[in-house]
Amino acid sequence: MSDFVVGDEDFLLDGRPVRLLSGALHYFRVHEEQWEHRIGMLRAMGLNCVETYVPWNLYEPEPGRYGDVEALGRFLDAVAAAGMRAIVRPGPYICAEWENGGLPHWLTGPLGLRVRTRDAAYLEHVERWFRRLLPQVVERQIGRGGPVLMVQVENEYGSYGTDTAYLEWLRDLLVACGVEVPLFTSDGPEDHMLTGGSVPGLLATANFGSGARKAFETLRRHRPDGPLMCMEFWCGWFDHWGREHVGRAPADAADTLREILECGASVNIYMAHGGTSFGGWAGANRDGELHRGELRPTVTSYDYDAPIDEAGLPTEKFRLFREVLEKYAEGPLPEVPKPPARIGAPAVGTVDGWASPARVMEVLGDEERHTAVPPSFEELGVDRGVVRYRLDVPGPRQPYPLGVAGLADLATVYVDGALAGVLDTADAVLPEPVAGPAAVELWVESLGRVNYGPRLTEPKGVTGGVLHERQYLHGVRSQALRLDTFVPKAVARVPFTAVPATPGPGLFRAVVGVPSPGDAALRLPGWTRGFVWVNGFCLGRYWNAGPQDSLFVPGPVLRAGANEVWVLELAGPAGGGVELVEWAGGGGEPVER
Length: 593
Fold this sequence. Notes:
By secondary structure, the chain is α+β, with helices and mostly antiparallel strands. It contains 14 helices and 32 strands. Strands 14, 25, 26, 27, 28, 29, 30, 31 and 32 form a nine-stranded antiparallel β-sheet that branches. An eight-stranded parallel barrel has the order 4-5-6-7-8-9-10-11, surrounded by five helices. Helix 10 (250-262) runs parallel beside helix 11 (316-325).
């Protein structure tokens, strides 16, 4: 058994100084059959440690109902098998450009801004979750022969609040659950962030993308002693739908990595490999003053311009990082693993079925609810998906503006069955007035819950009401269509028909013949916005707004021969081709042979 402690100047492993050269790899953003390859890529880059978050909402969709929580333990076993160490950041809040920052919608809905505080109702749920999650971390600590070196207390709390009592309660809970390895916090290198997020007696680390010496000087004002560590070295960044692609020059990133190490510090490269936010789990941000501006949904790809791209392939940034890191390695670095198999040849699918949104809702939707005012997604118990709100404009009455107050997402509006407009701001009005009587439908699509900043916990859907002139329209029929209902057994009940000559929104079915399965990129030329599944596996959201123009398909999802693809098109036009093409190396852009 080994012993790992935080010394006065260094990390000490069995009494000897050790530098942590870590890389962020979110196991939940990588297909499990590809974990071994991705960990091997981190090791070949010159790293000795793997860091991961844990998304609470992925594993507890309802209070007390758990999914595959043990996936974390299996991942930590894979890290150990590769001869590497692990840093675990269990939250309960993780940010990570993940839906709701990892917090369950059923928690933030009723509690709102009481989460991430000492509020008793919130703490009760956190304790239940941690006591379910942490045993697999505890039994894999380094002192018990496992790979886990450190565990984080909360996450970047200084960017959010100042409730020291909450952080100390979390510290005590982790210890009570059996965590014996060093605990730490991580925050931006600014006085107010380090003041709000640090806990006396725990290692404080800093998160930044440049200016290492200045950042560590700030950290030293708060922690004169102890090892220095950049817990998140932002070597790239993430993208938002409808915005320009964000990248970082490899040489610039490598220079900052070199500067961090020349300061004598340890480092965690964020992200070493970003992966993909499968299943529609990508989060969103708010811009503007106090983060109250436009909603900016995050794309499905979490490539992050990382040194190991979305498909696990090395980039120029990988090569430069490897050159920097090999100077700090104990012995020669291992060879770079061979890339996973790629699709044998491009394949084009044949779209052979379509079902209208109404028919899909009829088969796969929740039971329709009748209320006086529109319920939010949280009140309907919906995390990811679409809600159809139906209501009537009474009449006779003259045409008046029809709008939505408190729209938190994107609404496609139909009046008497005809498309009347798409609304995407908090207080939006249709371009043309509506006369009564009229039947109104709003199909509201969640674009991802905010994962960072003061707008964390904001509800989704229609959070105010539907207005005709200044009058609220009451008597609402609401029905939810959840992404997790799209499983083969359920979709088999959908009454598909021939594809219309000019198809609009709906669920489309296609078959793609693949002679040799392997990693691929899925393209949807001619489609607008929605979600796509391959053999029942949800790849995530697509959107012609860019900058992402294809979706990564892990090789283990495909099979030789026929592969079934479902495309839930929410906007239209729709019904173009479904293409699987080879994934290119070093940049994540698809290429045809």
